[in-house]
Design goal:
single chain; mainly alpha; Arc Repressor Mutant, subunit A; two-stranded antiparallel sheet; 2 strands; elongated
Length: about 160
């Protein structure tokens, strides 16, 4: 919370610490909604946010169902169902795994890559007002600070 000229006290830090989770969740929700709406406007109206998180793991080299399940924090059965849905919709396909004859590699199709590019463009559109509100320097500093704090948790882009 921006309070120019206000000295930072323990009380302010405590209040900010309580407010931060709600603020981050609100921005996250806004980002997901913006990507969802932007993807639909670009012709990908059959995709849900969970699909986008899967695409983030599948780009650039694909993943097994087990790796996808771990990334999404779901069971292998749930990941298998998600993959089957994405295969039916033409976003992914299964290939033989180059290093494990028992496994199949799930990779994005050209349609999957086109959807990923649309989501990237929609994300940029969603973030543009944030840059305008903060200014380029403060926005860059915010990104740098968040990068220092961001966990390497299960749901994250791998590119």
């Amino acid at each position: 919370m921006d309070r120019p000229g206000t000295p930072v006290t323990m009380e302010l830090l405590a209040a900010d610490s309580r407010a931060l989770p709600a603020l981050l969740l609100g921005l996250s929700g806004e980002l997901v909604a913006g990507i969802q709406a932007g993807g639909a406007a670009r012709g990908f109206d059959d995709i849900r946010p969970a699909h986008g998180f899967a695409f983030a793991r599948l780009a650039p080299h694909g993943a097994t169902v087990g790796e996808l399940a771990e990334h999404l924090g779901v069971t292998k059965q749930a990941a298998s169902q998600l993959v089957e849905e994405l295969v039916r919709k033409g976003y992914v396909e299964r290939h033989p795994h180059p290093d494990d004859a028992r496994a199949r590699l799930v990779v994005l199709t050209e349609r999957g890559w086109a959807c990923t590019r649309a989501a990237d463009a929609a994300a940029a559109d969603t973030v543009r007002p944030w840059i305008a509100a903060l200014g380029p320097e403060r926005f860059h500093a915010l990104c740098a600070d968040l990068a220092r704090l961001a966990p390497r948790g299960p749901v994250r882009p791998t590119w």
